[in-house]
Structures are given as C-alpha cells and as structure tokens.
UniProtKB/TrEMBL annotation:
<dbReference type="Pfam" id="PF25954">
    <property type="entry name" value="Beta-barrel_RND_2"/>
</dbReference>
<dbReference type="InterPro" id="IPR051909">
    <property type="entry name" value="MFP_Cation_Efflux"/>
</dbReference>
<dbReference type="InterPro" id="IPR058647">
    <property type="entry name" value="BSH_CzcB-like"/>
</dbReference>
<feature type="domain" description="CzcB-like alpha-helical hairpin">
    <location>
        <begin position="169"/>
        <end position="226"/>
    </location>
</feature>
<dbReference type="InterPro" id="IPR058648">
    <property type="entry name" value="HH_CzcB-like"/>
</dbReference>
<feature type="domain" description="CzcB-like C-terminal circularly permuted SH3-like">
    <location>
        <begin position="370"/>
        <end position="429"/>
    </location>
</feature>
<dbReference type="Pfam" id="PF25973">
    <property type="entry name" value="BSH_CzcB"/>
</dbReference>
<comment type="similarity">
    <text>Belongs to the membrane fusion protein (MFP) (TC 8.A.1) family.</text>
</comment>
<dbReference type="InterPro" id="IPR006143">
    <property type="entry name" value="RND_pump_MFP"/>
</dbReference>
<feature type="domain" description="CzcB-like barrel-sandwich hybrid">
    <location>
        <begin position="131"/>
        <end position="280"/>
    </location>
</feature>
<feature type="coiled-coil region">
    <location>
        <begin position="205"/>
        <end position="232"/>
    </location>
</feature>
<dbReference type="InterPro" id="IPR058792">
    <property type="entry name" value="Beta-barrel_RND_2"/>
</dbReference>
<dbReference type="Pfam" id="PF25893">
    <property type="entry name" value="HH_CzcB"/>
</dbReference>
<protein>
    <submittedName>
        <fullName>Membrane-fusion protein</fullName>
    </submittedName>
</protein>
<keyword id="KW-0813">Transport</keyword>
<keyword id="KW-0175">Coiled coil</keyword>
<dbReference type="InterPro" id="IPR058649">
    <property type="entry name" value="CzcB_C"/>
</dbReference>
Length: 443
C-alpha cells in the first residue's frame, strides 16, 4: 500500500468519526464529495448557514444522523451508546439517574429573535402602587408598638396603639348623643300618642318631633366625625356597649414589609405624622433613562434584564410598564419604568442597577436561544448535550450567533422541538473525557 492510499484511508476513517460525533452532517459530507464550487453560495436565506446544514429548514438531516447513531454497533458487537468504553467516540455519556433534575437539568429549547437595543443605568425603587405611609388621623401618644424595621406584616395586623384625648372626647360625645336620641325618640312617641288622642297640643307634638330629629342629626354628625378620625364601623358600634376609651389601633392596609419606622413608645404624634412605612417588596420598580433619540425603540411590554453588584452572576427579568411623557430639559432624557418580580427578595430599593432593554418577537424564522451555561467547548468547537433517554446524553455540535447577557443564539444544530441540558453540561463533558482516557471497554 503506497503512502497516498494510506492517507486516503486515514482521512476516510477520520471523516466517519467526525460524522458520528456530529461535527459533520451526512448531507455536508455528500455535498462536498464533488467540486466545492458547484454549491458555492448555497446559503439558507432565513438563518444564514449553509442550506445543507440548516436543521431548522431540514430537520430530517439531524434526525437521520441520530437514528444511525442509535443503530451503530461498536467493535464489541453491542450498541455503541450502551458500551461503557466506546460511547465517548460518538460524544455520548451516561450518568446516574439520581442526579437528574438537581445536578443535571434539561429544558426545552426556546425559539425567538432577541437583541439588545439599549443599555442604561438605573435604580431599584419600591412599587408605589403597593407602598403606604401609615399615619394616624388624630393626634395621640404612642402606647404600644408591635413591629420593627424589616418585619413582614399581613393585612389587618396591628401596628401600634395610640392614646388620643381628642378621640376620647368625640367618642364620649357620640355615646351621649346616642342617649339623647333614645330620650328624644321616647318623648316623641309619647307626644304622638297624646296628640292622636287630642290630649296634647299641636305645639308640644311638633316640639317633640323637632327635638327627635335634632338628636338624630347630632348623632349622625358625630358618627361621620369618628369615621374621619379613622374609626371603622365596628369600632363605632362598640361605643354603645363598652366604656369610653381614648385608645385606638393602627393596622396594616395590605401584606408587605416595614421599610421605615418613625416612632417610639411614649412619643406624641400629630395627626398625619408618619408612624411606619409599608412596602410590598415582592414586586419592585426599576427606573432608568433613555435619550430622546431612542424613544421609538422603547415600547410598553419590552423585556429588560436587570443586574446589580450584589449578584454579579445573576440577572432579573422585568417588563417596561411606563414611559415618561416629558423630556428632561437638562439631560434630554425620558424616564422609563420597568416592573420586576422580586419574590426571591434579592433586590432592594435604592440599589444601583444596570439595565438591558431587549426587543423580543415571535417570528417564523426565529432561532433557538440557550443559556450560556448550556454551551460547552472543545477547542474551537461548541456543543450542547441533548438527552437520548433517561440517564443517557449525547453531544450535539452547534454554531453560535449573538450573545445577549447570559444567553446565546444557536445558528444551527438545534430546533424548536429539542431538549438540551441547561445545567450540569460541564459534568457531562467531564464524563466523556474520563471515559476517553479511561481503561477502555469493560465488556
């Protein structure tokens, strides 16, 4: 055998090996058996890759290669993906099922177009629709305090008890007015009966009727005054049964967290002076500025990715909910507000934030996007792991496109129906390398 024949045999074997590893597709090898100039310029117009390699337009390319992989037997006459010593040759790795879901996580591939249209700096702030400064409607001395900074509270929970002389006086007057109404009603009923019997005069009857109406008006006025002082209907009804008290309770209007406390026990607080501030920290606002020339790129509903110095390796997703209607004359910028879910409570009002405004749209020519962590490298090549069946994964070579803060476009190698390993890929890669340099097949 001469040198040229030996070289051709070696190159053919190497090409077959790369074919089963997914580096070359069958269609690609066939396409290049002849003159390469014949297919020069045959590019997929939608996805920017060679037509023969576009699995989005021709999913049969990928399916046929993997069907052949499942049928392939190794030199030990068993399925190559089941052979502990040979499966690494085709980029397959087997792991214990117990680590699935925790150490190794598999998710569906998402298809969408995504691009950064604006970068900005901003500040995390409270959601002002879920933010309240709790204050009394009447002056009083703080007798008890039930919450402190950072305490979670529930709707209706007691925050503080105050003692108000002014409120006590109105309550006493209300109780007196109730007694006056009862007396006036009793007198009116008696005069009405006597008048019908022509025993009492018209003058006495009208005087009793007027006194009863006046008593009712006075009682109603005092009730409205108590409501203005922050008393609830139940509190007012209790006045008739209980002894007159000057104490009143401040309660939380909704679920949230105490973010500020401006009170001490024994302190005299004026009407409408802040006692505590409550904010719902499970949903926050992030404010950032855009220049007036960039206003057309921002739309309500745009997705934003937010990062803060406290968690440099994490990003928090939000949506644009408000775009300012005026331009700052000095900075020539417009305020934009994004709303972000903060049930993890990692974001804090006042944090400095970096904001990436993203434009996302569902299109027929959209490309798969996967997390950066899902992509592994082997020299100059990039690949992901896809599950064959439970506990068994195989390497899938991919061509990458634009990276967008934690995510990357996949130009070829994946399609919408694929599932990929998004967490634990490096462990699978390490498993292949271990088998590759191990002791070989145990069969």
């Amino acid at each position: 055998m001469n040198y040229l024949q030996s070289w051709n045999i070696r190159m053919t074997s190497f090409t077959i090996l790369l074919l089963f590893m997914g580096v070359f597709s069958i269609a690609n090898v066939v396409a290049h058996q002849g003159c390469q100039d014949t297919h020069k310029g045959e590019m997929c117009p939608e996805h920017g890759v060679p037509e023969s390699e576009c699995v989005l337009c021709n999913p049969a390319i990928k399916n046929s290669s993997y069907e052949e992989l499942l049928k392939k037997h190794c030199e030990h006459n068993i399925s190559i993906i089941e052979c502990d010593g040979c499966r690494y040759e085709v980029g397959a790795v087997k792991v214990d099922k117990s680590i699935l879901g925790e150490i190794v996580t598999v998710e569906n591939v998402e298809l969408f177009d995504i691009e950064v249209t604006h970068k900005a700096t901003g500040e995390v702030g409270p959601n002002r629709d879920r933010f309240v400064i709790v204050s009394p409607r009447v002056s009083g001395v703080v007798k008890e305090l039930f919450v402190d900074w950072g305490d979670p509270v529930k709707k209706g929970q007691k925050l503080a008890v105050l003692d108000s002389v002014e409120l006590g006086e109105v309550r006493a007057n209300y109780k007196k007015a109730m007694a006056m109404v009862r007396m006036a009603k009793k007198n009116y009923s008696r005069e009405k009966t006597l008048y019908k019997q022509k025993i009492s005069s018209t003058k006495h009857f009208l005087e009793a009727e007027n006194a009863y109406e006046q008593a009712q008006i006075e009682l109603k006025a005092l009730k409205e005054k108590l409501i203005l002082m922050g008393q609830q209907e139940g509190d007012i009804q209790d006045i008739a049964e209980d002894q007159v008290s000057s104490l009143f309770i401040l309660s939380a209007p909704f679920d949230g967290t105490v973010v500020e406390k401006n009170v001490a026990i024994g302190e005299l607080k004026d009407a409408f002076a802040p006692i505590v501030t409550i904010s719902d920290l499970t949903n926050l606002w992030v404010w950032f500025d855009i220049y007036e020339k960039d206003i057309p790129i921002v739309k309500p509903g745009n997705k934003v990715m937010i990062s803060v110095a406290s968690y440099p390796n994490e990003q928090f997703e939000g949506l644009v909910t408000h775009i300012g209607v005026t331009v700052d004359e000095k900075t020539r910028t417009v305020k934009v507000r994004a709303e972000v879910d903060n049930r993890h409570e990692k974001l804090k009002p006042g944090m400095f934030a970096k904001v990436l405004l993203l434009h996302q749209s569902e299109k027929t020519n959209s490309l798969p996007v996967v997390p950066d962590e899902a992509v592994q490298t082997d020299g100059q090549e990039h690949f992901v792991f896809v599950p064959l069946h439970e506990g068994l994964f195989v390497r899938r070579d991919v061509t990458l496109g634009t990276r967008v803060d934690g995510h990357v476009k996949v130009m070829s190698g994946l399609n919408k129906n694929d599932r990929v390993v998004v967490k634990g890929g490096f462990l699978l890669k390490s498993g292949i390398m271990k088998e590759k340099f191990g002791e070989g097949c145990t069969h």
